[in-house]
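User: Could you check the structure of this?
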Amino acid sequence: MLSPIIATAVTITYALLGLAILLTLWRLWKGPATVDRVLALDTLGINIIAVILLIGLALGTRLYLEAALILAMAGFIGTVALGKYLLGGDIIE
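Assistant: Sure, the predicted structure tokens are below.
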């Protein structure tokens, strides 16, 4: 059970992360260049990881921490692969 101060902080953080996700989706949609869209996807992944960690904190379980770690690794690999593709056109040499 979370203390009332922590519960209030988690609620405020949910709202701020929701706003961050909406702004990131707008950048993903309107991004003038492909690089902007790749960065928006990476930022969206980080925001979703933060939401997953907040859910784990609110529920008091460590299972969500492992899911967030796996998602972080997949997001990093995806960002590196997209960056390499945009720079050279070939992912695996």
